[in-house]
């Protein structure tokens, strides 16, 4: 009986001591609201302000995790740590901070793995795929994207994962698999999901119809199918113009894709008309504030500048003006914040 009584006392003492390590539920509720607000307004923020705000919440979440032993609170906080790490990975990509983005994507996956959260896991793998194809590792990109597809809950998460897979296959030079991934994304769009990141919070974790069409146009351009790309870009631009919630960065990416498509699909003798049309397509892009500019825009500008260098276009004044505008735009890049280790 002595050992039984001692064990009971130790168990009671442990329970009381653990009970002292609890934070108010409203603290977690406030952190969740703050994280969701950043995600929903993510594309309307500058990348540097997104970093600052997401870092603030991320640090508060990690601090809160040291002050509670309650399993349910730990689970909620791990989810928030995964959310905010994922946002920091996305902001790192926007700024071209590849090492930092890679670390935060890996951290997001780790947090998601601890609690078995499919939405966080899929989003993190998608970020890793995106980083891989932007940094010239197409085979890694396909591997991460396939994992994102396998992990993705039904609904928006699946749409996003298949679109990222299409981009990864495009960088691997496989148009047939690009087409299949895009068809799978279309099918996934018609399935209602309930993931608390992709379907409930949305914003940066969402994936809109304009984003989906933009993704298709970029993928088709990557595999040198400009007619398919042009159709997708025109669909994307129409969707952007019909939406009140699209970011200026998304619209600029769509317009740059469409401009490249217009040049690539021109007929002989239509050079002057094509360049004039392209000039009008791009007119809204050039006034974008420096702090709003993202990595995705610069890659598209590089492709456009190369296309404008064709001998049949170089003699045209408007083509020369477009090149100058593109070079000036690329010269203006947002200041790079310091991202601490994940």
UniProtKB/TrEMBL annotation:
Higher taxonomy: Bacteria, Bacillati, Actinomycetota, Actinomycetes, Micromonosporales
Top-level taxonomic group: Bacteria
Protein name per the record: Transcriptional regulator
Organism: Paractinoplanes ovalisporus
